[in-house]
Amino acid sequence: MRSDASFSSCGIYRWRLTRFLNNSKKELIFVGLNPSMANSSENDPTIRRIVGFADLWGYGSLTVINLFAKISKKPKILKYCHDPIGPRNDFEINKNLRHWSNNHLCDLWIGWGVNGKLMNRNNQVLKKIRDYDSKTPYVIGLTKEGHPCHPLYISKQSKLIHYYQN
Asked: Which InterPro entries match (predicted)?
């Protein structure tokens, strides 16, 4: 499997992670909470799960971006960081949303869980998504509070469903 990743020069932030799965022209962009330890050559548990879903659903490539670009195995640490979003993260999010909006073979899956509400970041990014209103993003489920489910905490047989925002 070919792969690619983009990191800050200091190594504190991961802007984007891409996995090329097969020859299908279908693309999937996933917006998660924050990067863990995956890089251009190694997967972490979340990336393994997302790659498995993308492959099962027939996508040829997967790009992962996040609400917060700060690399951390423990998402709860984000609230103690000076800048968990990172200086280039919104640029990367906007670039990928523009690609999704302009490409009929590209789908957007959001799955950041309840921790996405930190700094009201979930609503900031949902507004960006709404600004590209030509398409509807997908989720694999919602938490009790209505947040897009994180992929690690959902059945492996889950299917993408449209996410209708208020």
From this structure: DUF1643 (IPR012441)
